[in-house]
Design brief:
By secondary structure, the protein is mainly beta. It has one domain (6-30, 49-181). Helix content is 12%, strand content 42%. The radius of gyration is 20 Å and the shape is elongated.
């Protein structure tokens, strides 16, 4: 039985990024934008809070390993270069590439970009070529659909769909889980 690999599937024509080893966990960060009203308090003295909207989903993957030692190849050329492209502007656009983060049939974020990336080389070939890289963290941030045609900025995704019962649903797997809890 073959193992299905997690991947960042490009929506902009840049190369897909297929993980060599799947994540051990997928930590999700989601929250609500709030603002405290200075001086405004309830009858019990609790500060009044204004609610604005949902923050974009963030997933930070840790300890992701890429290894080319057995093949005698550069891990930079085989894997890391695709992540380096992910933090540059997409060709012809004024923003980084947009991806779908998926693993098998599950879509964890329908539209996201690589917000932050931190890795280290941990193994080298005899000639000094890096052969293993370990990602300390890879942060993916949800993005909304843009009609930029080359000039738009990434905007946090705040759109939802509504069913016949007026229940709101996000367009991603994690968003659906989020809706189920709140």
């Amino acid at each position: 039985m073959n193992t299905t690999k997690a991947m960042l599937q490009s929506l902009d024509g840049t190369p897909d990024i297929i993980f060599m080893f799947n994540p051990q966990e997928i930590p999700v960060k989601v929250g609500i934008e709030t603002a405290d009203s200075k001086g405004a308090r309830s009858d019990k003295g609790i500060p009044k809070v204004s609610y604005s909207n949902r923050k974009p989903l963030e997933i930070t993957l840790k300890n992701i390993i890429f290894d080319t030692y057995e093949q005698g190849k550069s891990v930079t050329e085989e894997y890391i270069s695709k992540f380096q492209q992910a933090i540059e502007f997409a060709p012809g656009l004024q923003r980084p590439p947009i991806y779908t983060f998926r693993w098998g049939g599950e879509i964890y974020i329908k539209r996201c970009f690589v917000q932050d990336l931190s890795f280290k080389y941990t193994m080298f070939l005899a000639n000094g070529t890096p052969a293993r890289a370990v990602f300390d963290s890879l942060t993916l941030k949800e993005a909304e659909q843009t009609n930029d045609g080359g000039g738009g900025a990434i905007k946090p995704k705040r759109t939802t769909s509504t069913d016949t019962n007026n229940n709101h649903h996000s367009d991603s797997f994690i968003g659906n889980i989020f809706d189920d809890f709140f």
